[in-house]
Write a structure and sequence with these properties.
binds zinc ion, 288 residues, 35% helix, single chain
């Protein structure tokens, strides 16, 4: 397709977007960071996107927010003119699914776990759920390698998947793993702290020393860092379990400094990634 026409169609497709709520996206800059082989990640605002380019077309993971789609597409077009064929949602959250409607209108096929679609519909999200869903796993055979998408134990939500680029040795984890803060467990959407530990164990099993791990938020990581992160979660789990055995309430547990030596590096300031909300999730799993 002629580039001018393509741009025209793209802008027309982007006009009626409903989900651009109260955030100002004007100053968001889209940066593409090469990871390995044809795989990059795209940083803008919201979750890290995955980008895989080659002769068969463009494959994306997640799509940030709707007002950013035109800028994201422009950034992709600086690297590839191939059609944007496939997009996988790692989970339901708006900072990972906000561009679904726009990409869908451009003809991109959008995939996600069954629970991503059902939870988005149940939560009455403004974002459009994936049109194609799967229960366990699926494989894309494109650009000379196998891209394996597979469900992991309920962790950040109940629809989390990892995406493994088997040739390039890259794994995108969605928000099950983030290098920015403590894990955020969306308990209302089926997330689980103990499931997060299990999912990180899967990530460790699927990785070798050279695997590049793209987290949902933050820079590229590796199995050594994931192992340390998993070990921290195990320590916190065991401390909360001991406190529960001692008859402590959730409020007492949140006030007991159980994460003190980790807080400076890992505690987020609010509900998402904060120590108190994480401890509430641990308590939820262990006390009930
Ligand atoms: Zn999320």
């Amino acid at each position: 397709m002629n580039k001018a026409i393509q741009t025209l169609l793209l802008s027309a497709a982007l006009l009626p977007v409903s989900s651009a709520i109260a955030q100002d996206f004007d100053d968001v800059v889209i940066n593409i960071h090469p990871v390995s082989g044809g795989v990059s990640y795209i940083e803008g605002r919201g979750g890290n996107m995955g980008l895989f380019i080659g002769d068969d077309g463009v494959f994306l993971i997640d799509d940030q927010y709707a007002p950013l789609t035109a800028r994201i597409v422009a950034a992709i077009r600086s690297l590839s003119d191939e059609p944007i064929r496939f997009l996988v949602n790692t989970h339901m959250h708006p900072d990972h699914t906000g561009g679904n409607e726009n990409f869908g209108r451009m003809g991109t096929m959008i995939f996600g776990h069954d629970n991503v679609r059902s939870q988005m519909l149940a939560a009455e999200y403004a974002e459009e759920p994936p049109l194609i869903t799967f229960s366990d796993d699926m494989s894309f055979h494109i650009n000379g390698e196998v891209v394996h998408v597979f469900k992991v134990p309920n962790a950040h939500t109940n629809g989390d998947v990892f995406i493994k680029f088997q040739g390039s040795n890259v794994i995108h984890t969605g928000d099950v793993y983030r290098t920015t803060t403590f894990p955020y467990i969306d308990v209302a959407n089926g997330g689980s702290y103990l499931g997060t530990i299990e999912a990180l164990n899967v990530l460790i099993e699927e990785s070798d020393a050279d695997t590049k791990i793209v987290p949902g938020h933050g820079g590229v990581s590796n199995v050594e860092e994931v192992t340390a992160f998993r070990n921290m979660l195990v320590v916190i789990r065991d401390r909360v379990a001991a406190a529960i055995r001692d008859g402590k309430s959730l409020e007492e547990i949140q006030g007991a400094g159980l994460t003190a030596e980790y807080d400076e590096r890992w505690a987020g300031s609010g509900r998402i990634g904060g120590s108190a909300s994480m401890l509430a999730a641990v308590y939820e799993d262990l006390a009930n």
